[in-house]
Amino acid sequence: MHLPLPVTLGLAAALIWSPAQAREMPLLASGPAVSDSKLEQGGSEADELTEMLERITLPDGFEIEVFALAPGARHLAVAPSGKTLFIGTMQGRVWAVSLDRRGSKAEAVAVFAPFVDFTMPHGVCFAPDGTLYIAEQNRVLEFPQAEAVFSEDEMQARVVVPKGELIPPAEESQIHTSRICEIGPDGRLYISLGQPYNVSPANKLAFYEETGIGGILAMQRDGSEREVYTVGIRNSVGMEFHPSSGDLWWTDNQVDGMGDDTPPEEINRQTAAGQDFGFPWYGGGSVRTEPYLNSEPPADLIFPVVETDAHAASLGMTFYGGEQFPEHFKDGIFVAQHGSWNRTKPIGARVIFVPLGPDQQPGPVEIFAEGWLDEDSGSYLGRPADVAHLPDGSLLVTDDRAGAVYRIFYKG
To answer: Which of 129, 259, 311, 323 has a 20 to 30 Å separation from 186 between CA atoms?
Structure first.
């Protein structure tokens, strides 16, 4: 059964699960901003990665280099000042990276907030005032002075969403649990919650809509006024608000086990709160899932604006707002594709690009950077996970397999 959104939200608040209401955010703890020991950069590991990067093909005029070594590097957040970079992981740590004066080189990499016991601190995002938010598996924390991380001896961690209240604890899983977050144009905090199945069972649907699992939550930065902003998502691990329209765009990984080339993965554009993007009735694009084939889909579903290759595992995305790249790339979308895990012939492990016209209409998908997949052996030399651009206009790419961040720059 598919309940209308206002009904399901009412049921959630009244019957099933009530997250914290408006409140003063409690102090979790305070302690050293970064660990005493910095992660060694360069050396033989960096040399080996530099040699591997010779395999990466890019458009004419572009080059790629090792930017930083950071084990488990996944989601990226560049501080508003452009002087510091934060990297979320699926392990129990977040990396803080200080940049040089030009903002194009990593000077130091250290464990951020070592006094906090993190659980899958994957989602990192900044508010315009320099406050850092970290979305864990089942908690959200705030760090008001994160930009001063390498100049402060101590900092505070405050609780936005207490542990066990982002999702009901019984729904915690190792599957589709990489949270991401963004601050919207309205100043609210948005968090994506993947659902822990290949295809959600029917007896979970109403409950998931009530709690925001398989959707995107919106809340004030103190955790209050929480609402389910989006429904009908399978597992989104990349989202960003368009810099001019303010619309929310996001990637979505789609259903496995339906064949090597179907269903397509998605890039979606959301223009209003409460929109439904069709999962689990649709497994990707207009492809119906078998468990729901004889079930009537909800009305007024939103279909993707871009369909990408099946099973390439499109994760992080960003609108390119830099000035370094040629005009063709201005305001277009870069997406990191992590690579397939169960396709007969692997696909992915690359960065794709989608040009956008003045009306935000997407052009054909282009392969921008590839070569992390060894075509002969079918093995991965690297697994791109996220993308972000630096103030100098160069593009960063994380690689959680190699434990590194790469920088792609244009020399013309």
So the answer is: 323
How far is it, in rounded angstroms, from Cα 142 to Cα 192? Answer: 17
Residue 336: name the closest of 395, 277, 255 by CA.
395
Per the CB < 8 A criterion, the answer to whether 280 and 234 are in contact is yes
- Calpha distance 136→47 (Å, rounded): 33
Q: What confidence score (pLDDT) does residue 376 get?
A: 87
Q: How far apart are CA 210 and CA 213, in angstroms?
A: 8
Dig out the tokens for 124 from the structure: 């990192």
Rounded to whole angstroms, the Cα distance separating 315 from 294 reads 31
DSSP run (H or E) holding 45: helix 43-52
Digit-coded pLDDT (tens) for 41-59? 999 999 999 999 999 999 9
Question: What is the full DSSP assignment across 397-408?
Answer: EEETTTTEEEEE
β-strands 27-32, 154-161 pairing: antiparallel
- The pLDDT, as a whole number, for residue 412 is 84
Contact assessment for residue 244 and residue 257, using Cβ atoms and an 8 Å cutoff: no
Tokens of 153: 């001896």
Contact at 8 Å (CB) between 168 and 35? no
Structure confidence by residue, pLDDT tens digits, 365-378: 999 999 999 988 98
Query: Is 235 in contact with 252 (CB distance < 8 Å)?
Result: yes
Instruction: Supply 65's token pair.
Output: 């280099």
Q: What single-letter amino acid sits at 51?
A: E
